[in-house]
Amino acid sequence: NIRVLCRLRPWIEEDGPRDGNTLAVNLDPDDDGVVKVSNKGRMHQFDFDKAFGIDSTQSQVFEEVSSLVRSSLDGFKVCIFAYGQTGSGKTYTMEGPPSDTGIQQRALQLLFDEAKDPDWNFTISASMLEVYNETIIDLLSPNQSVKLEAKLQPDGILDVPGLTQVTVNSQQQVEQVRNAVTIFFTLPQI
């Protein structure tokens, strides 16, 4: 199942001067999946499975998608794809500040908590890739010249053969893997 959610972010200084107290984007008070956008005097309506207003919390957004963690432990492939223009709040929603973490950290915490079930044995691995100019780059591989391709397996699962995978047993180990990538790709200042 594909669900499309929308989160409105508050007005920020970088948006420029605000036109009074009128917001160009509003939620429909009677339907939590309808977003109304005012543009050049015309009202446009967009329908989503769920929409979050500017006062929504990281916790509320995560609660809506937390069932995906359980689905992953049940063997389903899951993905949360954040899409939007620069400055629209993707990084805030997905990562958040340390004091109010976003979906990624909350999902990892729930994943490792749920994986402690004594009746099951889970192996959790991390991989990191980047798609740039239609090229797949393995961010954990020291050999960036290896050509990788996404392949559709006979069972309908999309896979990237040869992608580096690292077994992780805690949220801290995932963070270490992430930090290693950041350090690996940091260029020295000239």
From TrEMBL:
Residue ranges occupied by any Kinesin motor domain in the UniProt entry: 1-190
Entries under Pfam families matching the protein: Kinesin (PF00225)
Keywords: ATP-binding, Cytoplasm, Cytoskeleton, Motor protein, Nucleotide-binding
Source organism, top-level taxon: Eukaryota
Protein localization: Cytoplasm, Cytoskeleton
Binding site residues for ATP: 84-91
GO biological process: microtubule-based movement
Gene Ontology terms, MF aspect: ATP binding; microtubule binding; microtubule motor activity
GO CC terms: microtubule cytoskeleton
PANTHER family: KINESIN-LIKE PROTEIN KLP-3 (PTHR47972)
Family statement drawn from the similarity comment of this UniProt entry: Belongs to the TRAFAC class myosin-kinesin ATPase superfamily. Kinesin family.
Name assigned to this protein: Kinesin-like protein
Organism whose genome encodes this protein: Elysia marginata
